[in-house]
Structure formats: structure tokens, C-alpha cells
From TrEMBL:
<dbReference type="GO" id="GO:0009159">
    <property type="term" value="P:deoxyribonucleoside monophosphate catabolic process"/>
</dbReference>
<feature type="binding site">
    <location>
        <begin position="103"/>
        <end position="105"/>
    </location>
    <ligand>
        <name>substrate</name>
    </ligand>
</feature>
<dbReference type="GO" id="GO:0006163">
    <property type="term" value="P:purine nucleotide metabolic process"/>
</dbReference>
<protein>
    <recommendedName>
        <fullName>Putative 2'-deoxynucleoside 5'-phosphate N-hydrolase 1</fullName>
        <ecNumber>3.2.2.-</ecNumber>
    </recommendedName>
</protein>
<dbReference type="InterPro" id="IPR028607">
    <property type="entry name" value="DNPH1"/>
</dbReference>
<dbReference type="GO" id="GO:0070694">
    <property type="term" value="F:5-hydroxymethyl-dUMP N-hydrolase activity"/>
</dbReference>
<dbReference type="GO" id="GO:0016740">
    <property type="term" value="F:transferase activity"/>
</dbReference>
<comment type="function">
    <text>Catalyzes the cleavage of the N-glycosidic bond of deoxyribonucleoside 5'-monophosphates to yield deoxyribose 5-phosphate and a purine or pyrimidine base.</text>
</comment>
<keyword id="KW-0326">Glycosidase</keyword>
<dbReference type="GO" id="GO:0042802">
    <property type="term" value="F:identical protein binding"/>
</dbReference>
<comment type="subunit">
    <text>Monomer and homodimer.</text>
</comment>
<comment type="similarity">
    <text>Belongs to the 2'-deoxynucleoside 5'-phosphate N-hydrolase 1 family.</text>
</comment>
<dbReference type="Pfam" id="PF05014">
    <property type="entry name" value="Nuc_deoxyrib_tr"/>
</dbReference>
<keyword id="KW-0378">Hydrolase</keyword>
<feature type="binding site" description="in other chain">
    <location>
        <position position="19"/>
    </location>
    <ligand>
        <name>substrate</name>
    </ligand>
</feature>
<dbReference type="GO" id="GO:0009116">
    <property type="term" value="P:nucleoside metabolic process"/>
</dbReference>
<dbReference type="InterPro" id="IPR007710">
    <property type="entry name" value="Nucleoside_deoxyribTrfase"/>
</dbReference>
Amino acid sequence: MKIYFSGSIRGGRIDADLYRDLITELKKYGQVLTEHVGSSALKEELSDREIHDRDIQWLHEADIVIAEVTTPSLGVGYEIAKAISFEKPVYCLYRENEETRVSAMIKGSPKVTCHSYNKFPEAREILCHIFGIRTRQ
């Protein structure tokens, strides 16, 4: 299974360590096409156009999209919308807090399944459930 993981890069890297942990967990279920999202030392050697085109290709290849949407990001929202247009299953994970709220365009979409969690162990359980369902279909 090919997994596209989406998390904030230019919108803020406060959750980079969490992304790394989620990616490590996702690798139990398949190939994560976007491992770089969890890196604490991101280097952008590609042009914006090259990044866009590469990521769109990965979205086409992906069997599923998992997005961590606690940190608002235009890029993550764009990737989710493209994944929906490509008819990919999209699952969003987020932590509830008073400072940020997940966009209604994400939580309100009938094409996106959202799960809230507090700590990483809960996120791990959510992923286990998601992939348990995906493998039974």
C-alpha cells in the first residue's frame, strides 16, 4: 500500500517530531511516499513547481492519504482537495485545542474522515483502526 502523509511544512514545523512518529507508525502499513515531511532538517532543493509536480504525482500513486491537520496549512488543504478529486480515501488527524480549530471545509466534507486525539498513543490506535478497516475491504 502506498501512503501519502500530509503535514504542515511552510505553515509551521512545530509538529515535525510528531510527524516523524506518525510516519514511523505508517510505515508498518505500507510505503510512505512523503517521509521527508517528518524530517527536522528539511532542505528545499527543488523549485516550487518541481515540488508541486512531484507531490501531485505522489498523490496519484497513493492508495490512501493521511493528514495531520492540527497546524493550519494551505498546502495540506490543497493536497486534501486534490486527493478528493482523485477519489482517494482521506483521513485527517488533529488535536483539539483552543488556539486552532480545524477548518469546516475539512471537518465538514463528506469525503474526509476526521479523528481527534490528545496524545500520540491515541493517534497510533486511530491508525491501527483505519488500516484494519482498509485491509478488510
